[in-house]
Amino acid sequence: MSSLPSMMKAGVVRRDSSGFSFHITTVPLPQLAPTDILVRLTATGVCGTDIGLASGKLGPTHEILGHEGVGRIVALGSAVPAASSSSSSPCAPDAVAVGARVGLAWLRDACGACAFCLHPGGETRCAARRNSGRAGVGGTFAEYAVVPARYVVGVPDELGVRDDAVAPVLCGGVTAYKALRESGVAAGGWVAVSGAGGGVGAFAVQYAAAMGCRVVALDAGDAKRAYCLALGAEAYVDVADEDQDVVAAVRSVTAGAGVAAALAIAGTAKAYQAALEFLGPFGTLVCVGIPPPWETVSFHPLLFIDKGVRIVGSAVGTREDIRDALGFVARGLVKPTVLPAKLEDLPHIANTFAQVTGKYVIKFGESDSED
Ligand SMILES: NC(=O)c1ccc[n+]([C@@H]2O[C@H](COP(=O)([O-])OP(=O)(O)OC[C@H]3O[C@@H](n4cnc5c(N)ncnc54)[C@H](OP(=O)(O)O)[C@@H]3O)[C@@H](O)[C@H]2O)c1
Ligand SMILES: [Zn+2]
Ligand SMILES: [Zn+2]
């Protein structure tokens, strides 16, 4: 610990009556508890949830947000046994070693003992879960962060994926991958992706195409059409086109049948409402996007009774899902659209977030040593 600085650079969120803004400042290094590890960040993505959290609409937060972080372990707490980092398994205990590459995702700790944790794949809903950037848990818009040694997302170097491509998969990518898995859609089936031009949605288009699905992309504005089609969508529906009936347009793309899976990734009730209507027989609506608390969705039970459709929610992904989602990137089947940035760009990123296609990835210093 003696060679570590006492202060670090961080992007902190401040709110006042006119809204929120990010400020770059120096803050003390987080305290390393005996069961924690200290990670020096090399890269972090910026997710739509960070913008939602920054606005204050999603409840209390830590002043340091961010949950798509990659870095290397630089110190172990006094109760964490030293180990080698030779394993290629991201979940292996020996990923906990100084020098090992790790990810810091939305889920930062899970108890391993509650009803959610004991359910296969249930750890992301742990009753005692701790999330990056939520109260008490510093996020990844900072040079250092602490992680409990019992919940480490290992990102082995053998994966052969650069830090700036790993980062956006840790939330955006794995969320899209898991939502598709939750939908149960088969190869050849139609998948509607609402919010397809955004950070999570662009990944959903690519994962769906890589899994052999047919994608109809929905987003606002014509500028995102070319982007979504280049990512692998077969069709694009512009929800901002007031001359167009969105539900009819999706039905038309699917020759009247409706879609087998609708991924509602845009964080608005309007996208959910439309998705319910363009689901095909026995289709599945997967809830991903988080509308503000006052926006709700309505349905008549006959929709479910007559059409046999399902609604499921999907929450990021487990460490196993992260490993699987990264595998698609390692094999070249999914290519994150990275917009390189510096921590100092965070205020600008927040102001222009809605206008860009691609994932902002902030790099810290020059320490990205992978490959
Ligand atoms: N469930 C989970 O585990 C999970 C994980 C990660 C993120 N999220 C949530 O997922 C949402 C998306 O995150 P993100 O990072 O992808 O945000 P993003 O980059 O802002 O993407 C959202 C996209 O949806 C578009 N959109 C807005 N209204 C629409 C509509 N009615 N129909 C279709 N598209 C519409 C937006 O266009 P404009 O910019 O023009 O409005 C934007 O392109 C957020 O609510 C985030 O909190 C959930
Ligand atoms: Zn996220
Ligand atoms: Zn638990």
UniProtKB/TrEMBL annotation:
Its cofactor is Zn(2+). It comes from the Eukaryota. This is Enoyl reductase (ER) domain-containing protein. Belongs to the zinc-containing alcohol dehydrogenase family. One of its GO terms (cellular component) is cytoplasm. Residues 19-362 form the Enoyl reductase (ER) domain. Gene3D superfamilies: Medium-chain alcohol dehydrogenases, catalytic domain (3.90.180.10), NAD(P)-binding Rossmann-like Domain (3.40.50.720). Keywords: Metal-binding, NAD, Oxidoreductase, Zinc. SMART domains: PKS_ER. One of its GO terms (molecular function) is zinc ion binding.
